[in-house]
Amino acid sequence: MFQPSRTSETTMDSLFDRIVASGVLRDIEAQGAAEYPSEACGVLVEDADGIVAVPFENMQDKLHAIDPERFTRTSRTAYNLNSLKLERIRSERNVCVIYHSHVECDAYFSDEDQAGAVTPDTSEPVIPGVDYLVISIYDRKAREANLYRYSSQSKRYEHVDGTEIEA
């Protein structure tokens, strides 16, 4: 059961509302449980049939093995999407969200997430028009999901809506 923790008293963000209504959070939870204790990742695409999750392999451990000085973290605390697969899917479908899980911690948009989502020189989005969803996984079960959207005023991704997830 999903319990919305709304950012406003009266309305839920329309994209987040569609995400919750689609049931896709359960798909992400299942992926997060299967990939635990690694962070799970992927994208949400929206078309005439609704919103669906497209899981990706978390490339972080492979990158860490090749270059541990550059990729200092493992998949337990980081994710890295296959950029070629992402570009292919973006060319074919409407990618509206990039998602990833946090393992044994809350569903916040970390400084590392911020750094990866914006360009270092202008602080503009690396992928304009795409939001980020973070879901927390504790002991293979989802606890919360939060949606983050780029703010041109703050030049950061900010929380726009979220929900607690109960078993």
Explain what the structure shows.
By secondary structure, the protein is an alpha+beta fold. The radius of gyration is 15 Å and the shape is globular. 34% of the residues are buried. It has 5 helices and 7 strands. The protein starts with a strand and ends with a strand. A 7-stranded mixed β-sheet has the order 1-7-6-5-4-2-3, with helices on both faces.
- Helical/strand content category: alpha+beta
Helix content range of the residues, please? Answer: 25-40%
Cα distance spanning the termini: 7 Å
In angstroms, what is the radius of gyration? Answer: 15 Å
What is the fold named in CATH at topology level?
A: Cytidine Deaminase, domain 2
Q: Which CATH first-tier class would you pick? A: Alpha Beta
Number of spatially distinct domains: 1
Strand content of the residues, in percent?
25-35%
Runs in which pLDDT lies below 50 for 5 or more consecutive residues are 6-10
Assign an overall shape: globular
Helix count, DSSP H or I runs of 4 or more residues:
5
Average pLDDT: 92
Strand order across the largest sheet: 1-7-6-5-4-2-3
Q: The biggest beta sheet, please?
A: 7 strands, mixed
Which structural traits does this protein have?
167 residues, alpha+beta, Cytidine Deaminase, domain 2, seven-stranded mixed β-sheet, globular
Q: What is the topological layout?
A:
Elements: E1 2-4, H1 14-22, H2 24-35, E2 41-47, E3 50-56, H3 60-66, H4 83-92, E4 95-103, H5 111-117, E5 131-138, E6 141-151, E7 156-165
Parallel strand pairs: 4-5
Antiparallel strand pairs: 1-7, 2-3, 2-4, 5-6, 6-7
